[in-house]
Amino acid sequence: MPRAEVGTPKYIANKMKAKGLQRLRWYCQVCQKQCRDENGFKCHAQSESHLRQMLVVGESAGKHIADFSSQFQHDFVQLLSRRFGTKRVKANTVYQEYIQDRNHLHMNATRWVTLTEFVKHLGRTGVARVDETEKGWFIAWIDNSPKALAKQEASMKKERMTMSDEQRERMLIEEQIERAAAEAEASGSKPEQSPPAEELGLKRDESTEKVVLSLTPKTPALASSSASAASGIKLNALKPAANPLKANPLKRPNVFKQAAAPSSGSTPTDTEKINGKKREAPMTAAERLIFEEQERKRRRMEREAAA
Q1: What separation, in Å, do the N-terminal and C-terminal C-alpha atoms of the chain show?
Q2: Global pTM?
Q3: Cα 280 to Cα 104: distance, rounded to the nearest angstrom
Q4: Using one digit for the tens of pLDDT, what is the confidence trace for 15-54?
Q5: Cα dihedral sign for 261, 262, 263, 269?
Q6: What CA–CA distance (Å, rounded) separates 281 from 59?
Q7: Could you tell me the sign of the dihedral formed by the alpha carbons of 103, 48, 59, 41, in that order?
């Protein structure tokens, strides 16, 4: 039956039926012809034109398959780079957009039987980053063009310039630590752990006695209070002395007791002063450090003088 002429109702009806995608199994890539059903594909496979084309392809089948595979990969990667860029996207989404064109190169003419094998091939060749999840295979295009590499190098140079000296030193220290750990693992010896640094500073000695300061001036009337404070009894420094107006004028003081008091009732502090054994106050932490430093300097000077 001859073909319908262009512009006739039969020709328009055939075009409307062929609109859109048809079954992939009824497509002949060698002749680039899409059949609508199994009977039409069988009749096409037995036609003279298809047989002549198959004889031409049969002479170098590997070459034709390699050409179809490279063309399919080029078109697929070109769509991926222009449509999605370097974003991570589902592989099936890219393939669905690729087959929207009726005249696209079908995958059944390439060396890859399934889309999964083709995605794995892209990952092995370094064309894209590939990862498998529960939702399917995802790919992301790797831009290796000279312009992209120059842009990436410029951005890294800018980051290095804006990086502060402190961050740079920290990174260098971390790199040295990692390098030392790697060398220690390679040699089979464990890295020596430095002992924890001791805390240096002034430490308060809890065994020393508390120092009590009094802002009131010492008077002969408060001599007894100072003696009691030395013995460890705390008295109120703001408490006033006995009122002389309340003293009994009829009560006379004992003259013999007053004469015997200086001889027998001497305070411990007077006795120590007489004997020349004045009690020394305990040294504080700061005074002890100063004393040790002075002793160290004195010993060093003596060694230098002896040498």
Answers
A1: 126
A2: 0.43
A3: 105
A4: 766 665 667 778 888 887 888 788 888 888 888 888 888 8
A5: positive
A6: 114
A7: positive
